[in-house]
Design a protein that fits this description.
Length: 288
């Protein structure tokens, strides 16, 4: 992180509500604030429904509006005032300035198009200056650790393993050289060994490319070697944040403590997971 530079991302009082038929809109994100510097890596942690993914999708206005209602005092992403961009400007920003990796590569990749066709589409849209697309695609497939990349150019998604599909998704996201990569639960559908490989790959690529990374996850066990800073979300609010080492070793908030208690550890036995008392959390949770 380089503190002398302008923030890559600056959010003030972001609120996300969803319209409901016959009822008041449901508030999913409740006035969060976030500043991120170039080259920084942040992990956003919390259970399903805590507002992690909604926040991440709002950064590039990927939530359908309506039913989503997005408001903020400020939402600057990679130099763009996102709330005031036209749809055409948003399309240019997505992929080129900010890119996403989602948790299910099987549903994210088009099943009827080859790997080459899908990566070439991204290059044509965001990097038309690339003359030899095949060479560029092969280079990125090599960087993400895919063996025999020339052969994989002609492959369809169903011919690849889950881990290889996710590597293709990473190559597709990075081939446009975005400044900010958002990885939303990128290892959920993968087995433990492949999870470790994908996280190591993201950490290595982030360092080598000088890229900023936001990792969305419910699993505190995978963030240690990837994130500089951790934000813990609970029911649409940030309840704790700090350097990754500090959060993992000395969590202050009872919700963070409960999440850490769910992480399996070698050599320890637990007959049952710790129960989270939500009523107690709601009465004691600090508002950040």
């Amino acid at each position: 992180m380089t503190p002398n530079l302008a923030p890559l991302l600056e959010i003030k009082n972001l609120r996300i509500r969803f319209k409901r038929y016959g009822a008041e809109p449901a508030e999913a994100v409740k006035g969060i604030n976030l500043t991120m510097m170039p080259g920084e890596s942040i992990a956003v942690v919390g259970e399903s429904g805590s507002g992690k993914s909604a926040t991440a999708l709002a950064l590039a206005r990927l939530l359908p509006e309506p039913p989503a209602l997005i408001t903020a005092d400020q939402m600057s992403v990679v130099g763009h005032d996102v709330l005031n961009l036209s749809e055409r400007q948003l399309r240019r920003m997505r992929g080129r300035d900010i890119a996403y990796i989602f948790q299910e590569p099987t549903t994210s990749l088009n099943p009827v198009l080859t790997v080459r066709t899908q990566l070439a589409e991204a290059l044509t849209l965001h990097r038309p200056d690339v003359k030899d697309q095949d060479a560029e695609i092969i280079s990125w497939l090599c960087q993400v650790g895919i063996a025999e990349p020339e052969k994989r150019l002609r492959a369809y998604p169903h011919e690849l393993s889950g881990g290889m599909q996710q590597r293709v998704m990473i190559a597709m996201a990075l081939c446009c050289r975005p400044q900010l990569l958002i990885a939303d639960e990128p290892t959920t559908a993968l087995d433990v060994t492949i999870q470790k490989q994908i996280m190591e790959l993201l950490a290595e690529l982030r360092r080598s490319l000088g890229m900023s990374l936001i990792l969305i996850t419910h699993n505190l066990g995978i963030i240690q070697n990837v994130a500089d800073r951790v934000l813990v979300m609970f029911r649409g609010e940030i309840v704790e944040q700090g350097p990754v080492h500090e959060i993992l070793t000395s969590p202050k908030h009872p919700y963070t403590q409960a999440l850490l208690a769910c992480v399996p550890r070698m050599g320890t036995k637990q007959h049952r997971l710790r129960t989270i008392d939500y009523s107690q959390l709601e009465s004691t949770a600090p508002r950040l």
